Structures are given as structure tokens and as C-alpha cells.
Amino acid sequence: MNDHDVVIVGGGAAGLTLAHRLSGVNHPDGAPVRVALAEPPRGPHTPPPRTWCFWEPDGGEWDGLLAARWRNLTVVGPDGDARTAPADPFVYKMLRSVDLEARVRSGLGDRVAEVPLLVDAVRDGADRAVVEGVMPDGSPARLTARWVFDSRPPRPLPTGRTLLLQHFRGWFVRTPADAFDPEAAVLMDFTPPQPENAVAFAYVLPLSAREALVEYTEFGPAPLTAAEYDRRLADHCARMGLAGFEVTAAEQGVIPMTDAPFRTRAGRRVFRIGGAGGATRPSTGYTFSGVLRQTAAVAAALERGVVPVPPIPHRRRHLAMDAVLLRALATGRVRGADFFTRLLAPDRLGDVLAFLDGGTRLSRELALGLRTPVVPMSLTVLDQLGHAVRTALSPGRAPAPPPAGSSDGRPRTAR
Q1: How far apart are CA 257 and CA 322, in angstroms?
Q2: What is the C-alpha separation between 273 and 88, in angstroms, rounded?
Q3: Which pLDDT band, with edges at 50, 70 and 90, does 401 fall under?
Q4: Which residue, among 138, 140, 134, 144, has the nearest Cα to 39 in the 3D structure?
Q5: Where are the beta strands (DSSP E) in 175-286?
Q6: What is the distance in angstroms between the CA of the first residue and the CA of the last residue of the chain?
Q7: Whether the model pTM is above 0.85
Q8: How confident is the model at residue 238 (pLDDT cuts 50, 70, 90)?
Q9: What is the pLDDT of residues 34-49, one digit of tens each?
Q10: What is the C-alpha separation between 294 and 314, in angstroms, rounded?
Q11: Which helix (H) or strand (E) covers residue 303, if one does?
């Protein structure tokens, strides 16, 4: 049967999480919500395994699947000064995509039909939306649904004033002797050389005393080559004093960090979710927590029988603050290494994590703001306000093009 209540396009974090939530949802009259999960068959279109990191209080719904968890976080400044503090009331968590996928697929039951469809078109309609694509045997196929939720990366990326790319490559390393503290993750280490017009840092997520994910990350205009990432990773491992280690796996990706407005409604019956629907926090690139909130809201709306418009899971004022930070970094008004080292002070680490996850009041946020470079950030606020006024007075003005190296704007993975 090709007609459904809901079709979910894409089986990444957003698609799988929504399918999981809807597998137990009924309409107000008690009838089950009929769902199809449309994604390409296994092959060249299948994304590589990845890890998702996020923070939340203990006892989350995915705790049983976590690859690792840390209550203590370390920030290392450009001068090598390392400061470790509890993340209370949060726990920093790592979830592997393969584990989430296995758990979700094993529990979908008969309410969610998994359709191996390479989707090439989603068409809106008055009463039904249509999803069209190609089956593994090359034959065309179409699904119809009352609601369609599309999690594929948008092409092109929505245009804003500022766009940085969070690009990274990580090594899963194994050492011959104990080299890591499994109780503490290094959230940001700014000892790598800082490139011009970019922010560089490494982070270290121990899986045991002898295994860890060591990742090199930049916020900047363009990704590096794999060889360039590997040189920087090797240099950082040397700074850490690691010797004789083996690289057991690697991950690499690009996440757009943009002040562009995202809209979750793409038609009367078509919606965007996940990174395509603004779930990524612009200032950090973290996406998974936003996905959890967004998909929970969709499931609740369907259960109530109302139009299930996915919410943007970040407050407007937080997005405005993120836009200021991105502009300050892109213009060079602030040095990212100094900014984040000052912001992530040990005595306020929990407050900062709460803010980055959208859980603080304005008064607390203003207090945190005083820890940042006030003058350059204030100048950037005025710059943003001036730009907003000029844009309002010139509605036909063409937006600035994205920087070099971001022509398609597609996120390859998400933190």
C-alpha cells in the first residue's frame, strides 16, 4: 500500500528519531499513524557511520545506547593552561549512529514501512503530498501521504549574511599503554596553531584508558584536504605525547554555521526536519539535541490531531546572539580561541552548556556575555543592527554569496 499518513524522507538522525517516535503514536480517534520511511538502498548513497555528541541531565532516553559519557570536561587555552570542571547538571554523551539505527529499526514494528527508495522529487498537494523516486531494481515508484517530513540537506543552503563551515576530521586511536582519563573529555583544546580568519581546536573523547576519538576542527571558510587534516591530527597527537598508537577508524565532515533563516514548512503538506529544518545550533554545530526536541513536537502534534509543523528548536534571541558571534568571528573582531576559552570558564561551565542548549534566562545570558570581549561584541551588535536596517530599506538587495569552498552548502555529518 503506497498511501500513508506520514512519509519520512531520509534515515539519518532526524528521520530515524521521528520514525521511532511515530511507531507508537495514534490519531485522536485511536487509529495508528501509518508511516513510511523512504531512504536509499544500501550503497553509494548510504552515509558513513558517525558519532553524535550532546549533553543533557542523566537518565536520557538513549542512555542505554551510549558509547561513552563524561561528567567532567576540560578546556585548554592557547597557552596550554588546562582547566577541568564538572558539567553539572549535565552529562556529555556520545552516541554512535550504527547503535541508534540498530535500536530504531529493531523496534519499528508493523506501523512503519521501510521503503528502499532513492527519492528524486517531493511534490506538495492540497490533500496529499507525493514522494517520487527509484527502487533498487530501477523501477519508478511513488508514495502519497497526508504529511511528508524531508530530512535531506537543502540544496542550496538558505542564504544569510554570515556563513562559516565547521569542518573536521577525527581519528579513533588505540594506544599500547594507558593514555587517557575516561572520566574527563577534552571539549576544546586551542593549542593547535590558529589559522588566519579561522578558529582551530581539537577535542579528545576517551572511550577507555587506551582508546579515544581525537578530532581536529576548524570554524572557517573552506575545508582542508584529508592529508592536511591528518598532518594536523598527527601534530596534535604529538603535543599530547601519544606514541605507538594505531588509528582504528576515522570520521570526517562539514557542518554549515550560518545566520540564514531556516523554515520548516516547505508547503501545505511538506515539512523539513533536522539540519534541513534548523535543528543545528549556528554557534556550535551541535544538532542532535535540537532533533530530539523537534521530532518530539511533531509526534505530539500528530497525536493531538493538529497540523504537525516542526518547530525551530532554538529561541529567537539565541539565534540572534549566534548571528552576532558568527559575524564577530568572520570579521576577525574577536579571536575565537580567546573568546571560547573565556566563555567556558570552569565556574560557569554548566551555565554555558545550559545556554547553548537553550535552557537559560536572559539575565543569566547577559551575565555570561560580560565574560566575552565586550567592546568588539558590542561593535558587532551595532553592525548587525545597521545591516538589518539597510536590508529593510532595500528589500530587493541581493544577499551576499557564500564564501569559497561552500558551493553546495550540504552538511556531511553532524555533531
Answers
A1: 9
A2: 30
A3: very low
A4: 134
A5: 184-189, 199-206, 211-220, 246-258, 270-272
A6: 36
A7: yes
A8: very high
A9: 999 999 988 888 888 9
A10: 10
A11: helix 288-304
Largest CA distance in the chain: 64
At residue 216, does pLDDT exceed 50?
yes
User: What is the sign of the dihedral through the CA atoms of 93, 324, 277 and 169?
Assistant: negative
What are the pLDDT digits (tens) for 258-290? 999 999 999 999 999 999 999 999 999 999 999
Q: Which residues partner with 92 through β-bridges?
A: 55, 70
Measured from the Cβ of residue 369, the count of other Cβ atoms closer than 10 Å reads 15
DSSP state for residue 129 in the 8-state scheme = E
Tell me if residue 17 falls in helix, strand or coil.
helix
Residue type, 271: F
Q: What sign has the CA pseudo-torsion 257, 226, 208, 102?
A: positive
Domains of the chain and CATH, by start: 3-48+97-158+260-304 (3.50.50.60)
Q: How confident is the model at residue 138 (pLDDT cuts 50, 70, 90)?
A: very high
What is the predicted pLDDT for the residue at 81?
A: 96
For residue 254, list its beta bridge partners. Answer: 167
| Share of residues in the chain with pLDDT > 70 (%) | 95
What are φ and ψ of residue 261, in 5° steps? -75, 130
DSSP characters over 63-114: GGG-SEEESEEEEE-TT--EEEEE-TT-EEEEEEHHHHHHHHHHT-TTTEEE
Whether residue 256 has a cis bond before it, omega within 30° of 0: no
Question: What is the average pLDDT across 233-251?
Answer: 97
pLDDT for position 47: 84
Q: Is the bond preceding residue 195 a cis peptide, omega within 30 degrees?
A: no
Nearest CA among 211, 202, 207 for reference residue 168: 202
- With cell 554555521, the residue in question is 257
pLDDT for the residue 359:
87
Say if residues 6 and 145 touch (Cβ distance below 8 Å): yes
In this structure, the strands spanning 35-39 and 3-9 are parallel
Residue 101 class from Cβ within 10 Å (0-12 exposed, 13-18 middle, 19+ buried)?
middle
